[in-house]
Amino acid sequence: MDETPSEQSGARPVLRLTGVCRHYGGLRAVSDVSFEVASGERRAVIGPNGAGKTTLFKMISREEPTTKGRVEFLGRDITRMPAYRVAKLGLSRTYQITRVFPALSVLENVVLATQGLRPGRYQMFKAAMSNKALVEDSERAVEQVGLQRVTKTPAAELGHGEQRQLELGIALAQKPRLLLLDEPAAGLSAVERGMMRDLVKDLPDDMTLLLIEHDMELALGLADYVTCLHNGSQVAQGNPEEIKNNERVQDIYLGRGD
Ligand SMILES: Nc1ncnc2c1ncn2[C@@H]1O[C@H](COP(=O)(O)OP(=O)(O)OP(=O)(O)O)[C@@H](O)[C@H]1O
Ligand SMILES: [Mg+2]
Fold it and tell me: Is residue 121 over pLDDT 60?
C-alpha cells in the first residue's frame, strides 16, 4: 500500500489509529483499522451500510470504548480519555441524525453548544447570551454556514438542510483541530447537497477533516484521501483516483463484495 500523505510529510499526524477494533459480543463492528490523518488533510471514510464507519467515529470521539488498539490525537494517547476531555483538546463531530434543540433559535443553539467549552459552563443560559465574546464567536459560526438570515429562527422551523448547516455551525464554533462529519448530506435534496458540499469545501484549509459519506461522487470530490471499510475491515486506501479504479471497492459498491 502507498504511503499516506502524513507518512510522506513526516510531520506529526493529527490523528493516528493503530489496530483499532470494536467488538459487540461476537460481532466485529470494526476490526484492526490503522491509518493516519495529516494536518489539514481531508479524508473520506466510505463503505456500505454496517461497514463500521460510525462506530469508528465513536471510538475516535470516545463515545464508545475501543476494544483493542490505540487512538492518538495531536500526539496524545486518547484511547481511554473521557469524551469531554477529547472535545476540549479540539475534536468536534456532527451526527448521522440531526441533533439540535428545536425550541431554541439558531444562535442560541450555537451559544449553548459552545459555552460547554468555556469557564462558567453551568452559568444560566441567559448569562451566556449576554456574554459578548461568546455571542460574537457564535454569530461568526452561524455566518460561516450561511444561516445569518435565520439567526433568530427556532431550529424546529428550519428546513432539514438548514438544520444540518446548523449542526456544522455548532461544530465549527468549537474551533476544532479535527472535525468529524458523519454523513453531512444524508437525507438532503440535490440542491441542499450541493450547498453542503460547498460549505465543506470552503472550510479553512488548515482544518483537518474526517468525513463519512455514502455518495461516492460527493466523497471523492471533497477528499484528498479515502479509506474504504467493509464488514469492519479496511479494504482500500488511496487518493480519489486510486479509489475510483480500485477493483475491490468497485466490487463492494456494485454488490459483488463478499
Ligand atoms: N451499540 C451496538 N450494539 C451492537 N451492534 C452495534 C452497535 N452499534 C453498531 N453495531 C453494529 O456494528 C456494525 C457497524 O455499524 P455502524 O453503525 O458503525 O455502520 P456504518 O458503516 O456507520 O453504517 P451506515 O452506513 O448504515 O451508517 C453494524 O453491524 C451494526 O449493526
Ligand atoms: Mg453510520
Answer: no
